[in-house]
Specification:
It is a single chain. With 705 residues, the protein is of the alpha/beta class. The chain has three domains: 167 residues, Sandwich (Immunoglobulin-like); 282 residues, Alpha-Beta Barrel (TIM Barrel); 76 residues, no CATH class. The chain contains 22 helices and 32 strands. The protein has an eight-stranded parallel β-sheet. The chain has a five-stranded mixed β-sheet with strand order 7-16-8-12-11, with no helix packed on it. Strands 9, 10, 13, 14 and 15 form a five-stranded antiparallel β-sheet that branches. α3 packs parallel to α8, α7 packs across α8 and α11 crosses α16. The longest helix has 24 residues.
């Protein structure tokens, strides 16, 4: 586009008549949403750039437009020389925007004669008005007879048809804030449960959330992780399919009639204080096979199966081969009913004003469907993990293959966009697990078990010549071989490819380092600081800006990033630029001296995560003190683990604090088996707890329901 003046850039183009969809790009960063117009002769389009980082842009995501502030579409007379379009985020359902201005067609500034705008499926309030060409137009938007803030909007009306895309109405408002609860589906307990939480339990949780003033339920991944039916399959982040749902979450009675033995078995399993994964999944699959015997595919199933065939067919074939029994149709039947049950649960939650937030794992199971059907998208010779941090002093090895990002980009990131659009059937928001992995990943050689043997990819490793320029008396034997025979990690550098040397993370703690001369130690410490905290900032920023926009544009879900651990300097800026909410944990401040009062608005705050000890384990005082501090923070969303909300009620049947922890990243493998200590029905009857939570949310300005 050509620079016109301080206010406008312009472009004149010949475009064939019809529907035209376009998007603006500023410094390589595209708008999140595309725009669509109908091309007519002599058409002038006047747009305003909408920054992805603007809070108003975040307020246009699915939780706001589909759940909290859902507007019904209306039809307007589409005649008129000028089309005015504007967004009005956070406008209560059923309320309207009006347009007035300095010409008779707009009421001549008489608010009683202002034009009521219609709300369209495109999310804009729209008005069609005849205004003579060359008019020096001034106008404003109104809500409930009140003008928007700021000066008049101005435009010299051109000849022909004109479309004015204004950005947002300027009605005065305080930044929207909400509260929610985080809990894995398997942790839910209901009176009708089968030893685990199920999708059918989500409505009971939504009832409780809505009654307490919460507006969001955050879940862990719900994908199928069945490898061999052992308890190790309880790990929810090793999905065997990026699409398939886990049979663990099926409510069997909703599928069909069950034998008499089911009820007694259900009652016994539901008494368990923790999830007995192996027993529950074995019996659920047994009963599903019995129910499948009466299954006759109907038109609805066939239409769904055809629509989902791109992932359903390879998944069903994979499961049939894994189990060495049954037919692929059984697994399609199972997925169909899981889809129906989760869809019904989400619909119910939305009717209660509660959005459901999902979780996007950073990896997939190495021998799962995605890696088998699209091996070109993965680096099977490497493993993904995380460097040593507060969670795990030896680092983490998740065993996932790393991504072949060059191939992902060459394919237009279609694997990611299809995956996210599938998620959007159920979720209004999602958490990107380990978003740092989209900047760089901690890559571990396939033959290694511990995360300490990893290095960053992509990276700018040192050559032997550069090491010498740093004043390092380098030799492979001394710096790359174990200094002590009994500790293979007692090295200073890794050399994954010839003449590419990566400093070993935490080398200062090795015996090899401690045996060096002090002057060499000092130079190595300077080199490590440069390598880990400065050398790659530009590279990693560009990596993220290549990948993340494609993910964000795939859906209108609200995106939150789990950005804990060793956070590169470039991460906060990129996330803010793209409108991705950060995760802020008071126990893990990202800057020295940072308090909850300092965290950004575009963030999620919590007292703990599923990878940490819960509130009752680390804080021995009144839980309300900590929860109130978080609720009063600037963060847009305050989401507490269910265990932390329950800490407000000393009269509940609590587990030992250490048994409330869902996962310990330092222990691999870990049995994911936490269950809430009371049923959801009982929780909904705890009037005192309900009032206490609602009061805390209300006094913090986060009450939505």
């Amino acid at each position: 586009m050509q620079y016109h003046n301080e206010q406008y850039w312009q472009l004149a183009a010949d475009i064939e008549a019809g529907t035209f969809t376009y998007r603006y790009v500023l410094n390589g960063l595209p708008e999140k949403e595309s725009r669509t117009i109908t091309i007519e002769p002599d058409l002038t389009v006047m747009d305003i750039w909408i920054s992805p980082s603007a809070p108003e842009t975040v307020w246009l995501t699915a939780p706001f437009t589909q759940v909290f502030f859902r507007q019904e579409t209306t039809v307007a007379d589409a005649s008129g020389s000028c089309t005015f379009k504007v967004r009005a985020p956070l406008l209560p359902a059923g309320e309207s925007v009006y347009l007035t201005g300095n010409v008779p067609a707009l009421g001549g500034w008489d608010t009683q004669k202002a034009i009521r705008m219609s709300f369209g499926a495109d999310g804009y309030f729209t008005a069609y008005v005849d205004i003579p060409p060359f008019t020096a137009l001034e106008y404003k938007y109104l809500h409930q007879q009140h003008y928007e803030a700021g000066g008049n909007r101005r435009m010299d009306v051109p000849a022909g048809k004109t479309v004015i895309h204004d950005d947002f109405t300027r009605f005065l408002r305080t930044p929207w804030k909400g509260a929610g609860v985080a809990v894995p589906v398997f942790s839910l307990r209901s009176e009708r449960g089968f030893g685990t939480g199920e999708f059918a339990d989500i409505p009971l949780l939504a009832d409780w959330a809505a009654s307490t003033g919460q507006c969001l339920v955050q879940l862990l991944p719900v994908n199928d992780t069945i490898i061999d039916y052992s308890w190790k399959d309880s790990y929810p982040y090793a999905a065997i399919s990026a699409y398939a749902l886990h049979p663990l979450y099926m409510h069997l009675p909703a599928v069909g009639a069950l034998p008499d033995a089911y009820e007694a078995q259900r009652v016994e399993l539901n008494k368990a204080p923790q999830l007995d994964y192996e027993t529950v999944i074995r019996w659920k699959m047994h009963y599903l096979r019995l129910l499948f015997e009466d299954f006759k595919p109907d038109a609805a199933f066939q239409a769904w199966a055809q629509e989902q065939a791109h992932w359903l067919e390879p998944y069903a074939a994979f499961c049939a081969e894994r189990d060495k029994a049954g037919q692929p149709l059984f697994y399609a039947f199972t997925q169909y009913h899981l889809h129906l049950q989760l869809s019904a649960a989400v619909k119910y939650a939305h009717a209660k004003g509660v959005a459901i937030k999902g979780d996007l794992p950073i990896g997939v199971y190495r021998h799962g469907v995605d890696a088998l059907t699209s091996p070109e998208l993965f680096n099977m010779s490497a493993q993904a993990g995380a460097p040593p941090d507060d969670f795990a002093e030896k680092g983490q090895n998740w065993s996932f293959p790393t991504y072949n990002w060059q191939q992902m980009e060459a394919s237009g990131y279609t694997w990611w966009t299809h995956r996210l659009r599938h998620m959007a059937q159920y979720f209004s928001a999602y958490r990107i697990d380990h978003i740092l992995g989209l900047f760089r990943i901690w890559q571990i050689p396939l033959q290694q078990q511990e995360g300490i043997f990893g290095y960053f990819e992509p990276a700018i490793p040192f050559s032997e010549e550069e090491l010498r320029q740093w004043g390092i008396p380098f030799s492979r034997q001394r710096y790359c071989q174990p200094y002590t025979a009994d500790d293979p990690a007692d090295v200073l550098f890794f050399e994954p490819a010839p003449d590419t040397f990566h400093p070993r993370f935490g080398m200062q703690h090795t015996r090899s380092f401690k045996a060096l001369e002090p002057a060499v130690q000092e130079r190595l410490l300077m080199l490590c600081d440069h390598f880990f905290y400065h050398r790659h900032n530009n590279l990693w920023e560009q990596e993220a800006l290549r990948k993340l926009p494609a993910l964000l544009q795939a859906t209108d879900m609200l995106v939150c990033g789990e950005d804990l651990g060793m956070v590169p300097h470039c991460v906060p800026g990129v996330m803010q630029q793209l409108g991705i909410l950060s995760l802020e944990i008071a126990r893990m401040p990202k800057q020295a001296g940072q308090t909850l009062a300092d965290i950004p608005y575009l963030s999620v705050t919590s007292a703990s995560t599923h990878d940490m000890s819960t509130l009752r384990e680390w804080f021995k005082g009144d839980a309300a003190i900590v929860l109130r501090q978080h609720l009063l923070s600037p963060a847009m969303l305050c989401i507490f683990q269910l265990q932390d909300w329950l800490a407000l009620d000393s009269g509940l049947p609590h587990l030992r604090p250490e048994d409330e922890r869902i996962n310990d990243p330092a222990v691999t493998p870990w049995y994911w088996r936490y269950r809430m200590p009371l049923t959801l029905e009982a929780l909904n009857s705890r009037e005192g707890l309900r009032k206490k939570i609602r009061s805390l949310i209300d006094e913090s300005g986060r009450l939505v329901n």
